[in-house]
Input
Amino acid sequence: MLGLAALWADASAYHLREANAAYQSGDLATAIRLYRAFLKDYPDAAEIRSNLGAALARDGQFAAAIAEYNLALRKLPNNAQVRMNLALAYYKLGRLPEAVPHLDLLHKRQPLELKPALLLADCLLETNQAQKAVEVLTPLAEEYPDDRAVIYTLGMALLKDNRTQEAQVLLDRILRDGESAESEFLLGQGELLHNDLVAAAEHLKRAVELNPKMPWAHSLWGQALKAAGKPELATEQFREELKVNPYDFTANTEIAMLLRQDGKLDDALAHVALALQVRPNDPGALYLRASMHLSQGLNEQTRQELEHLLRDYPDFSEAHAALATVYYRLKRTADGDRETAEARRVREEAQRRLEERQKAAPAEKQ
Output
């Protein structure tokens, strides 16, 4: 007869075999249950924990998958697949700043591997780090001169980094192949940078027609429409963007401001939270959140948020004014007076700099 230890081992092996079979057949609930049963007996089995993470991610449970991948990575720090799966889970949840260090490590280990490099560049662009995205993609463009994904993403990064001439060279390559969503998007982005709102809107509209699920296209079209004084049409495009990419920073902040105007503060704050997942330190989004907390009467919470914001961005006049309001509500009159004066000083200093630039501009043209 088998001893108890052998019987227990047999039971665990059975759980593992059945878990693998369930995963392969797409029965994710069973796979997850059996992987967890196995890991109760063998909690240090990092490969199986990674399998559990994969099953959870495939089932859409990305937060739970992240926990399992992190545990697996402690035992398997050099396993590229586990690290890539972890980065993808962060990406799917819009937690891009947390995905970046893992993708950066993978990219440094294999600089010419396309998948981690393109995903890293995508995260860098979404988190407003265009220059770093250019640095990642430039060697790939030399290695893979005909790869459309590399050319397109690098072109977008160069445009965001205001390197329009270099971007035009790449755009010409895409245009040689005829009209495409990618070429129309890049043309629209370039026109928007040059403040040609009509041309930008036409190109971005065409990009969306060619590929309605193209990330960033609806959002950029919305920005062009808003700048052209068409807020209702812009809002429609921001909503369409969130159907494609629920973590788009611009679309979330724009929809949040609209909801705030309608008095739907809880819904607006949910969109700000999504935006801050992507750019946790963005001053505009942080101020937007604090201003809505102020509207909700959360004075102490707002005070802490605004004081923290102003430590990093001391020239943010609107934040000084809002903090003054909070101090007055908290009966801290002297502090309120100080922040009122500071808001005035910052505004006057900004106006002075603007007037100096305007005076200098005619001289530069001569």
